[in-house]
Amino acid sequence: MKRSFSHKTHLFSHFPDVVILTLGCVVYLTILRLASSEKILMYVTSVAFASFYILWGIFTQARRKTLHITSVLEYLCIGFLMLILLQFFLIP
Question: pTM of the full predicted structure?
Answer without folding.
Answer: 0.82
